[in-house]
């Protein structure tokens, strides 16, 4: 995760220059690739289920259709539900204001793709992260410290019948041994037995049913060697190429997965990418 290996980087860039055209979408091309939309009746029912699970004093505050999860870039085909505790106000961590404790849930189509803005590890961020999924949608969420409904995540999981894997704003470092061995075998085949470098960079992996969660240790090389684009989801040429390569290999190792949720982790920051398996875009939900 250090930034002091120029020869290592040059070798990686030479290898990754052979990668075919992009698999990783910035969200703009998702619709052209068959991005699905949410069923309005299904989402309306889900919102009612969440409202029924709210504890005393909590109420639905905002419902917003045709939106994107906070901190993400992608198609505006998601739905936001914000619930708040109307009985109290807490001091914001910044010390500059008070706020009502809240949870924000984004209902996301199963075929949605997007990229999160690069976020400082441990810093305050508005970015949503993965909560779980069911047959009809995925859910991303956001809350703030000091929440008065500490069992809120479990309440949403139960109400929405989610297969849950709540992701925080820190590296998860979850290691599913079977999934890791499966990916290593694929990388070993793809690199002719020289997968050691990639094995050192895979920091976490979890099999989540129709989704594969993966963490990659990489570098923030924005502005190194060339002017970086003004894109808050971009980590630099090396990191983007690594994302591309590992995404291809992961989806080849797990061809049955509908989605790859990939977290790129540097020394000080992270950025998530949600990628749909192009092989399964035309297939119905499980």
Protein model, in words:
The longest helix is centred in the C-terminal third of the chain and has 17 residues, at 237-253. This protein has helices spanning 6-16, 40-53, 152-160, 177-190, 196-201, 237-253, and strands at residues 58-67, 72-74, 78-85, 90-91, 98-99, 102-108, 114-116, 119-120, 129-133, 138-143, 163-164, 202-208, 211-217, 259-265, 269-276. It is an alpha+beta fold and 286 residues long. Helix content is 25%, strand content 28%. The chain starts with 5 loop residues before the first helix and ends in a 10-residue tail after the last strand. Strands 2, 7, 8, 12, 13, 14 and 15 form a seven-stranded mixed sheet that branches. Strands 1-3-6-10-9-11 form a six-stranded antiparallel sheet, with helices on one face. Strands 4-5 form a two-stranded antiparallel ribbon. It is built from six helices and 15 strands. It is globular and about 60 Å long.
């Amino acid at each position: 995760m250090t930034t002091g290996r120029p020869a290592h980087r040059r070798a990686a860039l030479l290898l990754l220059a052979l990668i075919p055209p992009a698999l990783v979408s910035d969200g703009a091309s998702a619709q052209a690739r068959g991005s699905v939309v949410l069923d309005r009746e299904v989402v309306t029912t889900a919102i009612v289920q969440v409202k029924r699970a709210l504890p005393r004093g909590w109420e639905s505050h905002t419902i917003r259709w045709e939106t994107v999860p906070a901190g993400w870039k992608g198609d505006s085909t998601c739905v936001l539900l914000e619930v708040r505790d109307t009985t109290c106000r807490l001091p914001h961590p910044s010390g500059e204001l008070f706020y009502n404790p809240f949870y924000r849930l984004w209902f996301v189509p199963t075929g949605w793709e997007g990229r999160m803005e690069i976020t400082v590890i441990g810093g305050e961020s508005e970015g949503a992260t993965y909560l779980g999924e069911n047959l009809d949608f995925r859910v991303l969420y956001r809350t703030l410290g000091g929440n008065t409904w500490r069992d809120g995540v479990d309440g949403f999981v139960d109400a929405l019948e989610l297969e849950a894997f709540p992701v925080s704003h820190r590296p998860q470092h979850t290691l599913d041994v079977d999934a890791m061995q499966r990916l290593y075998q694929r990388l070993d085949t793809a690199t002719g037995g020289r997968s050691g470098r990639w094995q050192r960079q895979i920091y976490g992996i979890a099999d989540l049913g129709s989704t594969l969660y993966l963490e990659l240790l990489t570098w923030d090389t924005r502005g190194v060697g060339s002017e970086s684009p003004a894109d808050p989801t971009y980590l630099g040429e090396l990191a983007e190429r690594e994302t591309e390569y590992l995404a291809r290999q992961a989806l080849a190792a797990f061809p049955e997965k509908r989605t790859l949720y990939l977290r790129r982790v540097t020394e000080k920051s992270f950025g998530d990418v949600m990628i749909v398996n192009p092989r399964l875009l035309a297939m119905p939900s499980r």
